Amino acid sequence: MEESLALVEYKKLSTKEKLVLYFLIYSFIGWVLETFYGFLVLGHFVKRGFLFGPICPIYGFGAVIFILIFDGLKGHNMKKFLISMIVFSIFEFAASWILEMVFHLRWWDYSDAMFNIQGRICLSFSIVWGIAGVIFSNFLHPFIKRKTEKLLERIAFPIQRMTIYTLASVLIIDFVLSSIKYIRL
Prior knowledge:
By secondary structure, the chain is mainly α. Helix content is 71%, strand content 2%. The chain has six helices and two strands; from the N terminus they run ααααββαα.
């Protein structure tokens, strides 16, 4: 009996599946942060983001980019800061431009901020992205990664996969329905 147990292969999510899981986790965390920020500024709940559901994909994409860029880069906080500042300023500019071209709407506008480029990015938020990159890679992601790994150890592999693929499918459906809502023909 012990031999048969030893032959059972412990399955883990692939790297791509884990990136999808992190995308979902950080998209939800981003929605919570955006909602909390909106509540603080306006004093009441305001639906934030593009999708119907409690997800802000730009945070998920940003987190996945952080994970891919900083995997293996230990220490070097100044390098992390500069890379984050540059990469995420480019990412934020591109995301703003694409959203505006596709949907003819702007989800953020920094036109009133000093040192902005077309209102899509500005120096103050570029600095925020730099700081966020250091905090994300040194503290937030290692914490989320540990907690996620612990949780995954307690869930059967088929349930893990089914959950990720179900949530990803719901996100795709939400994206399609939300896109239809915003597209102006």
